[in-house]
Design brief:
Blueprint lengths: L1 H13 L8 E3 L8 E6 L3 E8 L3 E9 L3 H11 L1
Antiparallel strand pairs: 1-2, 2-3, 3-4
């Protein structure tokens, strides 16, 4: 799972347009939408765009930690 997460981060670094985004998270509260990418069946990676081309990875988890991750993202945004 770590390897798949590293691959997604590498793709975000090289060409973020090729990464398939599953959904926007907390879009109602924050104009800077946090995006969710699914990898390796149950893995979740949350990131946002900062200053145009920069990507900020906020959390990496899985289906079991999704509730905790969303609470964390609510505090961060």
């Amino acid at each position: 799972m770590k390897l798949k997460a590293e691959e997604v981060i590498h793709q975000l670094d090289n060409n973020p347009m090729k990464v398939q985004v599953k959904r926007k998270v907390l879009a109602k509260r924050n104009p800077d939408a946090i995006l969710e990418v699914v990898f390796s069946y149950s893995g979740r990676l949350y990131f946002r765009n900062v200053r145009g081309k920069e990507i900020e990875v906020l959390a990496i988890g899985n289906k079991n930690t999704q509730t905790k991750d969303l609470l964390f993202l609510d505090r961060v945004s």
